[in-house]
Amino acid sequence: MFAVIKTGGKQYKVAANDILAIEKLEGEAGSAVTFEEVLLIGGEAGTTLGAPTVAGATVAAEIVGQTRTKKVLSFKKRRRQNSKRIRGHRQHQTVVKITGISAGA
Description:
Layout: E1 2-7, E2 10-15, E3 19-23, E4 32-35, E5 38-43, E6 46-49, E7 58-68, E8 72-78, E9 83-89, E10 92-102
């Protein structure tokens, strides 16, 4: 069974025991998280498409850790002016492990 969830303005296709990095969520490692914006559920019995979400469906997950992405550099150079500027940014993210998918009623 798989599901498509929406979190942090992005959509992810998940299945049980998947580990994925998503936008930062509040919580510590080991705490449970529930995603209630389930857009689609699929499996052997068929596919259920939400309009816009599947009623009563939830995806349970456990927070594995809080990390940061690799650094993204913003480089600006003005030619022949001996001028340049480098700025870096690392986005915070949460690593979660999907523990279960509930189709609801």
